[in-house]
Amino acid sequence: xxxxxxxxxxxxxxxxxxxxxxxxxxxxxxxxxxxxxxxxxxxxxxxxxxxxxxxxxxxxxxxxxxxxxxxxxxxxxxxxxxxxxxxxxxxxxxxxxxxxxxxxxxxxxxxxxxxxxxxxxxxxxxxxxxxxxxxxxxxxxxxxxxxxxxxxxxxxxxxxxxxxxxxxxxxxxxxxxxxxxxxxxxxxxxxxxxxxxxxxxxxxxxxxxxxxxxxxxxxxxxxxxxxxxxxxxxxxxxxxxxxxxxxxxxxxxxxxxx
Length: 258
Fold this sequence. Notes:
By secondary structure, the protein is α/β, with parallel strands linked by helices. It is built from twelve helices and nine strands. It has a nine-stranded parallel β-sheet. Helix 9 (about 190-200) links the parallel strand 7 and strand 8 (about 205-210). Helix 2 (about 30-40) runs parallel beside helix 12 (about 245-255). The two termini are about 30 Å apart. The model has no long low-confidence stretch (mean pLDDT about 95).
């Protein structure tokens, strides 16, 4: 089990704030600054997006940030280079999120090895099916002490959720609806029934809710049903405001927390 993620959830069972940003956006070399500023502002866990030209689960905001990041020259190699000293500066849990294709091109074992070297705690690859993970990659991930985080949706059958729970060791990403990221409709009643259903299953892994969490209200509502929530598109938008990166990060995070 991965220690940084495990100890985070052991210390904090409720109200955990996770933030997603796309590496290489707005500027190529913003990665470390964004991570350190998020930590300084009280974020608990960070998801670093590896940009990809065809992101299935991402809404327009994150897709656009991916396009800019790729034009800026962001690659998986570049990202690992940027993160090589990050553990001398912070112990915040870091999760890489991206798609299988670029990881396979980089080489899955080489990817796991580099991720472990720079101190990454977990990996989210939404398009890697559970069965393929278990048969082909689980041993590798465990060898390098990387938590594999899976997404579940309101449509995921109970048996599949239990299978995911028994094959993972970090947290489970509860997608609030079956749409893409960045839709800001709050949490519908049907989502609440789904969160309650998952909570009643008493899974061994904690749950974190994502997709559509964009302000203090939706964050608090999500935290009623899970250990915490993930904010992505709304934060990526905040990074594009006028003013300094530090100021934009600080005012956005404080608007969620206070």
